[in-house]
Amino acid sequence: MTSKGPDVARSALIIVDMQNDFVHPDGGFAQRARENPEAKIDMPFLMATIPQVKRLTDAFRKAGRPVVYVAHVLKPDYSDAQFPYWRVTRQSEP
Questions:
Q1: Which of 2, 34, 36, 64 is the most exposed place for a label (fewest CB within 10 A)?
Q2: Using an 8 Å Cβ cutoff, are 33 and 39 in contact?
């Protein structure tokens, strides 16, 4: 019988953007959500991903499988940002 789903014995968990700026209630994303309610950013939903990611992380580590974190990092002046939105909205900030 062929197994459906990932082969955990050959898998790694890759966690992308699980950072304070994206999922913390005091992070930059939450600040944008408060300033721009029309954007309909669902912070409770985003914050609710934290325990699920922790559960998966714990399971992968228990199974001896790799856990890889990918962090979004920019220079403080956003000069290395590839997405033009950051340049436009951050130019006037100190």
A1: 2
A2: yes
